[in-house]
Write a structure and sequence with these properties.
Blueprint (H helix, E strand, L loop, with lengths): L1 H4 L3 H5 L29 H15 L8 H14 L5 H12 L9 H16 L3 H16 L5 H17 L3 H18 L5 H16 L3 H15 L5 H20 L3 H19 L4 H16 L3 H15 L7 H16 L4 H19 L7 H25 L2
Helix pairs in contact: 3-4, 4-5, 4-6, 6-7, 7-8, 8-9, 9-10, 10-11, 10-12, 11-12, 12-13, 13-14, 14-15, 14-16, 15-16, 16-17, 16-18, 17-18
Length: about 375
C-alpha cells in the first residue's frame, strides 16, 4: 500500500531536475550487475545491443578506457541484456577495479548514475546504492557542484526508501533539502519537492501527525504556482495529504482531499492515464473502509480496465488486480472471477521474480511484495472448495 500511496510520484519525476534526466530514482553492486532484463523481442534494442557488443569486443580489459566503460554502461542501461551475464562479469573491471585513466570525469559520474537507474528500473535497489555512492565520491573529490551533489543525494534517498530503510532515507532527503536551500531561492520547485518527499518518508515510518504539519506550508507555496506543472504538483500534494488523513483514521476528510487532488490531476492528464488509475485503486480502498462496498468495487473495476493493458511486468497492474480480487473475496463474491484475476497477478509476480538470480535481498523483497497474491490464491481455492 505504501507504493500505491505514492500514486503520482512518477508524474512529478517525469518533469523533475534535468540533472537526473534519464536516471530513475531507484539501484546495483559495486561489481557486475545481477538484475538485467531481456531485450524482449524489441528489434531496435537488439540492434543497439549488437552495436555495443561490437564496441566492447575491441576493448582490452587490461587497459581500461573511458570509452570502454561508457560502452559497457550503455549496454546495461539501454539493453539490460540478461542473456549474457558473462559479458557483464568480463567488463565489470572496466568500471570498478581500475578507474585511474578516467577518474573524476563527468562522463564516468553520469555513467554510474545511469547504471544505477537501470538497476532500479528492475527493482534491484541494493545493487544501485553502491553506484550512487561511487558517483558521490567522484563528485566530492573534484570541486563539487552543490546542485549536482543535491541531485545525487535525492536519487540515493529514494533508493534507500525503496529498500525500506526509511530513517536513512529521511536523513538523506533532509541533506538534499539543506543543499538545495543554500543554492536555490525559497519556494523553488526543487525545494518544495524535497519537502514533500520528507513528508513521504515520515509517513513511511508511521509519523503521520509530524508529516501532516509539513503539508500546510507546502500547499500555501504550491498554490502560488499556476503553470501546468505547478498545478500538477499541487494535485499531488492534495492526494498525499488525503492519504495522510485517511491513515490517521480521518476517512471522510482523507477521501475528500484525495478526490480533490486526483480529479485535478485527471483534468490535466486524462482519466485513462495509468497513474490516475493507480490512484483510483487507493480511493476505492478508502471508500471500502467506510462501508460503501458497491461504490468501491466500481472504482476498482475502472482502474483494472486501464491497468490490465499495462505490460505484465508493471507492478501497478498486479496491484490493481489484487485489490479488486481481495475486495470481492472480503464480500464472498465471484470466486471464479477472483481465481482468474489472481492467476494473472501471480503470473506477473513470477515473471518479475525471474529476473533475480540467487536469493538476494532484492529477490527476498520481491517475494515479500508478492506474498499477498499467493495468500489470496490459497483463500480462493479454499472458497471454491467450500461450494
Amino acid at each position: 500500500m505504501l507504493i500505491v500511496r505514492r500514486l503520482l510520484l512518477l508524474l512529478t519525476l517525469a518533469v523533475a531536475s534535468p540533472a537526473l534526466a534519464g536516471v530513475s530514482a531507484l539501484p546495483a553492486t559495486a561489481r557486475a550487475p545481477r538484475c538485467i532484463e531481456l531485450a524482449g523481442g524489441d528489434a531496435a534494442r537488439a540492434r543497439y545491443i549488437a552495436a555495443r557488443r561490437a564496441e566492447l569486443a575491441a576493448c582490452d580489459p587490461a587497459k581500461p578506457t573511458l570509452e570502454c566503460a561508457a560502452s559497457w554502461g550503455k549496454l546495461v542501461v539501454a539493453s539490460r541484456d540478461g542473456g549474457d551475464p558473462a559479458l557483464a562479469e568480463r567488463y565489470a573491471p572496466l568500471f570498478h577495479t581500475d578507474r585511474r585513466p578516467m577518474a573524476r570525469t563527468p562522463q564516468l559520474v553520469r555513467t554510474y548514475l545511469h547504471l544505477a537507474g537501470a538497476m532500479e528500473q528492475q527493482a534491484c535497489f541494493t545493487e544501485g546504492e553502491p553506484l550512487y555512492r561511487l558517483a558521490l565520491a567522484l563528485v566530492d573529490a573534484d570541486k563539487p557542484d552543490p546542485g549536482e551533489v543535491a541531485d545525487i543525494y535525492y536519487a540515493l534517498a529514494w533508493n534507500l526508501s525503496y529498500q525500506e530503510r526509511h530513517k536513512e532515507a529521511e536523513a538523506t532527503m533532509r541533506a538534499t533539502l539543506a543543499l538545495r536551500s543554500r543554492i536555490l531561492p525559497a519556494g523553488s520547485r526543487d525545494i518544495l519537492q524535497a519537502q514533500q518527499d520528507i513528508a513521504y518518508m515520515l509517513e513511511d515510518q508511521g509519523r503521520f501527525a509530524e508529516a501532516e504539519a509539513l503539508y500546510a506550508p507546502l500547499l500555501a507555496a504550491r498554490e502560488k504556482l499556476t503553470d501546468d506543472r505547478g498545478m500538477l504538483d499541487l494535485a499531488v500534494t492534495y492526494t498525499n495529504l488525503g492519504y495522510n488523513l485517511a491513515s490517521q483514521g480521518r476517512l471522510a476528510e482523507g477521501e475528500a482531499m484525495f478526490r480533490k487532488g486526483l480529479d485535478a490531476a485527471a483534468a490535466r492528464v486524462g482519466e485513462s492515464d495509468p497513474m490516475i488509475a493507480k490512484g483510483r485503486t487507493y480511493l476505492a480502498a478508502i471508500i471500502a473502509k467506510q462501508g460503501r462496498a458497491e461504490e468501491a468495487e466500481a472504482w476498482y473495476r475502472r482502474a483494472v480496465a486501464v491497468l490490465i493493458r499495462r505490460p505484465a511486468m508493471n507492478p501497478d497492474r498486479a496491484r490493481a488486480i489484487l485489490g479488486l480480487a481481495t475486495h470481492l473475496q472480503a464480500r464472498d463474491r465471484a470466486p471464479q472471477e477472483v481465481r482468474s484475476l489472481l492467476r494473472i497477478a501471480a503470473a506477473d509476480a513470477r515473471l518479475s521474480q525471474e529476473f533475480h538470480t540467487g536469493f538476494s535481498r532484492d529477490a527476498q523483497a520481491a517475494l515479500r511484495r508478492s506474498a499477498p497474491i499467493y495468500l489470496a490464491q490459497v483463500r480462493a481455492a479454499w472458497d471454491l472448495a467450500r461450494r
